[in-house]
Amino acid sequence: MKRRTFLTGTAGVFSCVALGSFSHAFEKIPGLVSLSGHTMGTYFRIQFPEFRAAKATIDLNTAGTLSEVDRLMSTYLSDSEVSHFNAAAPGEPISISPHTNAVIEEAFRVGKLSNGAFDVTIGPLVDLWGFGPSRQTGKIPDGASIRHTAMQVGMDGLHSAENRLWKSKSGLGIDLSGIAKGYAVDQLARLLDAQNLPGYLIDIGGELRAKGRRPDGRQWTIGIERPVQGQRKAYRVVRLEDAAVATSGDYRNFFVSGGQSYSHVIDPRTTKPVAHSLASVTVLDQSTMRADALSTALMVMGPDEGRAFAEQSQIAAYFLVREGRRLNEFYSSAFEPYLQEST
Question: What is the pTM (predicted TM-score) of this model?
Answer without folding.
Answer: 0.89
